[in-house]
Amino acid sequence: MSEKSSVFLAHVRQDSNGQWVEHLLDEHLHGVAALAESFAVTFKAGDWARLAGLWHDLGKYRTTFQRYIRGASGYDAHIETALGKVDHSTAGALYAMQRMKGLGRILAYLIAGHHAGLPDWQSAEAPASSLANRLNQADLLADALAAAPPTDILNAPLPISNPGGERDHALWIRLLFSCLVDADFLDT
Length: 188
Description:
The protein is mainly alpha-helical and 188 residues long. Helices cover 49% and strands 6% of the residues. The two termini are 23 Å apart.
């Protein structure tokens, strides 16, 4: 990586003058968390949405992702990297499971699907994209944690509000998902 390797980027873009504008990862995570929380307070799930926002892009701390974003954007054009896709959401899903055990599956669904849609737990048609399969990729979380993300992000308080009731649990998850996706879009 370049001399800016200690700077973790969420996004980079060129402004109208051709200057690179960095969107720092910790700023993005906090921004998405605040927006998602503000959307979810209307159905008393702000604490859940805040955590989803804080953890949704933990995989962007991986060296592989930082090389990718710099190389794919042209920001660091001298970096030689394959310009395919780099998984940046599975690490956050894994972290939710690690921190929250069984209830972490709720956030794992949201985080894993924040670009592609809510995943199936298991899928005969697309087994590699199932959440169960993605949660077997512990190396993605280990790589992200090796970069030492900020402790205020990793150690954020766990939700104290109850997840949606039995009858409307699926709707509650979809509402939370919408809060995360909209917040991520608005903060990009």
